[in-house]
Amino acid sequence: KADGTFDVEEQGRLLDVLGDLDAEERAFVEAELAKPIDLMALAADTSDAMKAQVYATSVMAVRVDTPQEAAYLDGLAAALGLSDETRARVHASMGAS
């Protein structure tokens, strides 16, 4: 969803990673995927100790190949209040640019 879309292929990959889900779990995941991204809510629900980890998870999950995906990571970092140094450290540790 970082680029504003979440196509069928991406949904399939995510559901494959999640493994066997019962109907209730699958319905929950699908409902969450249908919601728009709310970076401020995500940041507000993230403890200070987990902010870099949340950002790192997004860096790992997002293949930055569109301006929208780069904007998503920029917006997430800003919402989480991450410094440029922290962002650089996360990217370096993950081999991402």
Give the class from helix and strand content and strand pairing. mainly alpha
Order of helices and strands: HHHHHH
User: Taking all residues together, what is the mean pLDDT?
Assistant: 88
Largest sheet: none
| Overall geometry | globular
| Percent of residues in beta strands | under 5%
pLDDT < 50 runs, ≥5 residues:
none
The strand count comes to 0
Report the helical percentage.
Answer: 55-70%
Integer-rounded radius of gyration: 14 Å
Distance between the termini: 20 Å
What does the oligomeric state look like here?
single chain
How many individual helices? 6
What does this structure look like?
The protein is mainly alpha-helical. Helices cover 67% and strands 0% of the residues. The chain contains six helices and no strands. The chain has helices at 8-18, 23-34, 39-44, 51-61, 67-80, 84-94. Helix 4 (51-61) packs across helix 6 (84-94). The longest helix is centred in the last third of the chain and has 14 residues, at 67-80. The two termini are 20 Å apart.
Q: Mind sketching the topology for me?
A:
Elements: H1 8-18, H2 23-34, H3 39-44, H4 51-61, H5 67-80, H6 84-94
Helix pairs in contact: 4-5, 4-6
Task: Put the structure in a nutshell.
With 97 residues, this protein is mainly alpha-helical. It contains six helices and no strands.
Task: Please supply descriptive tags for the structure shown above.
97 residues; mainly alpha; 6 helices
